Write a sequence for this structure.
């Protein structure tokens, strides 16, 4: 039933170095993206979902570092690639779309400049051919070619995000990492941008990783869902498994915390706050907020176990 | 939760043909460029009432004028035209000392809890200040007790710690609790909650909403709940008003709006919201993005995006019409 | 608490701050404890004229046989009191006017800004001379003169920051709870200005020291024989060719050190109060 794996991580660990100490941003993450499918990564802010996306394309901030594990793409461990080889991979094989395109687009460059720069940096084509590619990319995201001459500030939020998507997909990458691509947008525009990503997915057989804080959004769009908490992947599976039969208490609580337009009732909060990752709690990192906490949860760190076909959970309650 | 018919509803606040235009540019830039200053029609003639103890949700995209409406109601913005009647009194142009004293009765909770607190003021002092301003406590000690009490009510415990903390030591959710405490300590009759949870982590939103409801019930408050998210608005409101480009396009009980949306824009808003329970739905496809409020389209402002557009829509401006009891819609289809 | 205070010096800019504080505090202590430190009076003949630095007279003596070390440490009192009082004067007036001007805006703002700009465009020393020339040269008038010329420095900075803070959401929030203008200015805006005012205060003190020395050098500050570094410089200049270098070297050194001390404090505070690193 499951397709081919496009990319996977093995025991991935990422650290950030700050004045106060070392942030254990990711630990032992075993995550995978299936080919031509959409995988949603959800969790509260600070859970490591953006870090995971950035680690995969190796654009961590200067104080961040991959300290353990592997990221395997096409049989190659990305972690070991040189910066030069990585640059070739970015854009051509793996594209990235970020939350606020206003910060990722250069205010002094027109849409055309942005597209041409990306194209000419990666592949050897004439300027005319590059221009043609740019126009095609723009029309593939539903924007007219007249916008080629516009500058970022002349575009609406939705248009900017479309330009960012055109930039990320102009070289026809295999994987698209979309980090909260619609958080800054209104619901109607959000829907359209996501529809666009789905269209591109079908057209280019893209593999998409959609990072979002909104589990309802992931539930509606994704084929697979990974739930992250405090730097750990705590649950992973097909969308029907995770949404209809959530196994981790955190996933269950997360699902109860978002309103559902189909069935309006008061939502519930998850008590407490996510932990400080400089000093994460021992054992299961979720135990201080968990309603089903057992004594063992304080001592033992749960490992991912398979509870259904392709459905994994890291919770000591589920250990057989 | 919805208003029962046999209850006689008392209007707490009544808004009549309220308008707010902002002038962009002007001054030197006009002189140099020769361009005419642009006029933003942020709120363009809206009328509604909020009854005692009722929550009205104001829903729309950014640029719809919902935040400006909220700010007009608590008189942080001077209306260009129209009337605001509060407790039977016209407060549209109340000024100076009179307005300052009146502020005790209506309070606003802002969207951004990171910017709404003075970074150099202790939490305790921030909550104490409104009490001192309105002489609601006899002494600082008495004030301190009041503050401690309300800190506990908003679940910022140990209250001793939070009293002496500064905003930067608090999380977004905690700051929003401070903002709520600060507004509620005045025991206002009317609250404008301007997207109070949109900048807070999803997992913590429910607690903030419950807190608002708790105070609302305790103090029999009326509330204007502003939100871009109709699902969140639906959880907390008795009625919903949908705004588009400075106008109310539909208003009705929450149940009615959810089960029987009439305006194409309301339908689109509802179908755009992702849901855990469904995957993809039949949608009301609308085009483009919200128009420029300096130059709203003629006729029905929604017509350039509307899938049901008729010829008349670009000529005639629709007005709110009652389609069923208490359910009004401004659309030429009906 | 103690470790938190000491921690300040470990921050970026902490070194500057520490160095500046050491210099300034040493000079303040020397002046305050002048009676204890030196057995000599600063205004009485204590030996021969023009004795070069020796163990007995570490900074030598002047034409009148006064001990230069005594004149320097007692002179520090004059310099410090003039500079600190003048700086406090300009700080209070400049801050108050800047706050009101920025907050109230409109015609008042335009008027005040015009006056302040007019003062600002004058070279400070010339303006100080003009003021003391009108008021008469004595210590109080020196304080007033120096005080006045630095008012625009505070005014401009405070006004600019007030305009910025006025637009922030927490000011709007203060308005919404019914705070009046005075309360907003004092309780909500002023505390947010303090860090910047502190920085300007130290930088400005450094500058004021030089202006005071200039005034004294030209004879517009304290009347002789009250000791004052600028006055010593003025006298000393006449003897450079005679080779009596100590008459000018030590007062010059002290002026430079004190000015540098305040400048270092300002520099350090700037770094500490406006951290540029994000993480």
């Amino acid at each position: 039933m499951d397709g081919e794996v496009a990319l996977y991580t093995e025991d991935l660990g990422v650290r950030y170095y700050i004045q106060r100490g070392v942030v254990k941003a990711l630990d032992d993450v075993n995550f995978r993206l299936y080919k031509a499918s959409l995988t949603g990564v959800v969790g509260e802010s600070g859970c490591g979902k953006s870090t995971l996306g950035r680690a995969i394309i190796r654009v961590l901030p200067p104080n961040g570092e991959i300290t353990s594990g592997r990221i395997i793409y096409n049989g190659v461990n990305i972690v070991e690639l040189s910066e030069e080889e990585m640059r070739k991979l970015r854009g051509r094989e793996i594209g990235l779309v970020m939350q606020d395109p206003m910060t990722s687009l250069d205010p002094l460059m027109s849409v055309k400049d942005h597209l041409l720069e990306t194209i000419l940096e990666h592949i050897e084509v004439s300027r005319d051919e590059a221009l043609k590619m740019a126009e095609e990319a723009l029309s593939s995201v539903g924007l007219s070619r007249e916008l080629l001459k516009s500058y970022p500030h002349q575009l609406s939020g939705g248009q900017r995000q479309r330009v960012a998507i055109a930039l990320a997909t102009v070289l026809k990458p295999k994987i698209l990492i979309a980090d909260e691509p619609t958080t800054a947008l209104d619901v109607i525009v959000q829907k359209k941008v996501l529809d666009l990503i789905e269209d591109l997915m079908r057209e280019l057989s893209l593999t998409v990783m959609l990072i979002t804080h909104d589990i309802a959004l992931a539930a509606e769009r994704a084929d697979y869902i990974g739930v992250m908490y405090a730097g750990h992947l705590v649950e992973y599976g097909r969308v029907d498994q995770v949404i209809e039969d959530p196994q981790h208490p955190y996933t269950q609580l997360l699902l109860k915390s978002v309103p559902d337009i189909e069935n309006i009732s008061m939502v519930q909060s998850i008590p407490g706050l996510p932990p400080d990752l400089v000093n994460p709690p021992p054992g299961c990192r979720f135990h201080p907020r968990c309603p089903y906490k057992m004594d063992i949860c304080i001592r033992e760190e749960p490992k991912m176990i398979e509870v259904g076909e392709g459905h994994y959970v890291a919770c000591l309650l589920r250990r057989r | 939760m919805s208003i029962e018919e046999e209850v006689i509803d008392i209007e707490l606040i009544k808004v009549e043909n309220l308008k707010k235009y902002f002038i962009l540019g002007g001054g030197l830039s006009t002189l140099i460029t020769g361009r005419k200053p642009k006029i933003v029609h942020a709120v363009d003639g809206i009328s509604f009432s909020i009854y005692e103890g009722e929550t009205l949700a104001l829903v729309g995209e950014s640029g719809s004028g919902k935040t400006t409406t909220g700010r007009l109601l608590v008189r942080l913005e001077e209306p260009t035209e129209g009337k605001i009647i509060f407790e039977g009194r016209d407060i549209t142009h109340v000024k100076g000392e009179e307005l300052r004293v009146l502020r005790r009765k209506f309070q606003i909770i802002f969207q951004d809890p990171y910017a709404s607190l003075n970074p150099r003021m202790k939490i305790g002092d921030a909550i104490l200040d409104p009490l001192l301003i309105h002489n609601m406590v006899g002494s600082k000690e008495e004030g301190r007790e009041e503050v401690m009490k309300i800190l506990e009510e908003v679940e910022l415990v140990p209250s001793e710690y939070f009293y002496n903390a500064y905003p930067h030591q608090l999380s977004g959710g905690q700051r929003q609790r401070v903002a709520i405490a600060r507004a509620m300590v005045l025991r206002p009759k009317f609250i404008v909650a301007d997207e109070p949870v949109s900048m807070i982590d999803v997992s913590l939103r429910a607690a903030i909403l419950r807190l608002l409801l708790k105070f609302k019930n305790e103090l029999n408050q009326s509330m204007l709940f502003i939100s871009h998210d109709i699902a969140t608005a639906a959880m907390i409101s008795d009625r919903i008003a949908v705004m588009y480009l400075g106008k109310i396009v539909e208003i009705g009980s929450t149940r009615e709006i959810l089960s029987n949306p009439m305006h194409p824009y309301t339908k689109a808003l509802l179908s755009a919201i992702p849901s855990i329970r469904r995957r993809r739905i039949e949608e009301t496809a609308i085009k483009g993005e919200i128009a420029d409020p300096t130059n709203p389209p003629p006729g029905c402002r929604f017509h350039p995006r509307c899938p049901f557009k008729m010829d008349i829509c670009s000529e005639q401006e629709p007005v709110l019409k009652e389609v069923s009891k208490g359910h009004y819609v401004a659309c030429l289809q009906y | 608490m103690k470790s938190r205070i000491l921690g300040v010096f470990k921050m970026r800019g902490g070194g500057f701050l520490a160095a500046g504080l050491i210099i300034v505090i040493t000079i303040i202590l020397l002046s305050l404890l002048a009676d204890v430190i030196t057995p000599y009076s600063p205004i009485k003949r204590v030996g021969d004229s023009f004795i070069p630095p020796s163990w007995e007279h570490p900074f030598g003596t002047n034409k009148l046989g006064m001990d230069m070390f005594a004149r320097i440490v007692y002179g520090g009192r004059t310099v410090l009191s003039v500079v600190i009082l003048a700086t406090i004067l300009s700080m209070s007036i400049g801050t108050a006017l800047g706050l009101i001007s920025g907050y109230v805006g409109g015609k008042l703002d335009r008027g005040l800004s015009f006056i302040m700009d007019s003062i600002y465009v004058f070279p400070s020393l010339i303006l100080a001379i003009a003021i003391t020339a009108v008021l008469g040269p004595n210590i109080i008038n020196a304080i007033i003169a120096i005080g006045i010329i630095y008012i625009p420095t505070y005014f401009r900075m405070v006004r600019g920051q007030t305009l910025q803070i006025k637009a922030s959401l927490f000011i709007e929030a203060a308005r919404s709870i019914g705070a009046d203008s005075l309360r907003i200015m004092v309780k909500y805006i002023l505390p947010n200005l303090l860090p910047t005012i502190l920085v300007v205060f130290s930088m400005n003190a450094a500058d004021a020291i030089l202006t005071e020395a200039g005034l004294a050098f030209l004879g517009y500050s304290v009347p002789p024989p009250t000791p004052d570094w600028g006055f010593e410089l003025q006298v000393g200049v006449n003897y450079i060719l005679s080779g009596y270098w100590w008459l000018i070297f030590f007062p010059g050194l002290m002026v430079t050190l004190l000015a540098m001390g305040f400048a270092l404090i300002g520099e350090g505070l700037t770094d500490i109060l406006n951290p540029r690193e994000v993480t």
